[in-house]
Amino acid sequence: MSSASNPICPVTLFTPDGGGGHHDVAHPMTQLPAGQTEPFTLLKNTPPPEHTFSVQFDNQLTAGPGIQNARAYLAAFTTSVSSPAWTGTLSVPTGETQGISFTRADLNGGTDMWMGTWWDDGTYPATEQGVIAYFEAHPNGGMHHTVPIRIG
After folding, report:
1. CB pairs under 8 A, 24+ apart, for 92-95?
2. What is the pLDDT of residue 142?
3. What 3 state SS string does 6-53 have?
4. Of 52, 63, 123, 124, which is the most buried if we count CB atoms within 10 A?
5. pLDDT for residue 95 is more than 90
């Protein structure tokens, strides 16, 4: 079992090999930091503020024609990601690392979380419905690039 506080998750480019739909579009994907594996447990930050959790996204994409910011999506839930207890989203410019922090109270009882990325192009808006739509299109498993984590 793997765990960390304030992990820095690489955002890299997924280059598709076919399959139809948005799977034929090169797009950002989130990965666990080197040395971390699933199942992954997100731990509270140390040092203070110890009551918070944080996740950072390191957008390793390089600027170029058609390359845009990546948008990170997070959803905490207890049973189903389609009924999230909390959602978060963040636009991360190419070549930058940015993070999002939250408390256990923010999670409203959520014990599991999914995170992933797509282009910050409005396909999946920066709203709760946009986050839900992202995870409906990118379920855990397969080549969908959604990273499941437990809240420690």
Report:
1. 92/11, 92/57, 92/59, 92/117, 92/120, 93/59, 93/69, 94/59, 94/61, 94/62, 94/63, 94/67, 94/68, 94/69, 94/70, 95/59, 95/60, 95/61, 95/62, 95/63
2. 62
3. CCEEEEEEECCCCCCHHHHCCEEEECCCCCCCCCEEEECCCCCCCCEE
4. 124
5. yes
Please give the Cα distance from 148 to 152 (Å, whole number).
13
Is the Cβ–Cβ distance between 115 and 74 less than 8 Å? Answer: yes
pLDDT (0 to 100) of residue 24: 73
Q: What's the Rg (C-alpha) of the chain?
A: 15
Q: For the chain, list the domains and their CATH numbers.
A: 2-151 (2.60.40)
Q: At 55, is the secondary structure helix, strand, or coil?
A: strand
Closest CA to 101 of 47, 59, 46, 45: 45
Model pLDDT, residue 117: 94
Q: What tokens appear for 59 in the block?
A: 């957008």
Q: Can you tell me the mean pLDDT for 98-118?
A: 94
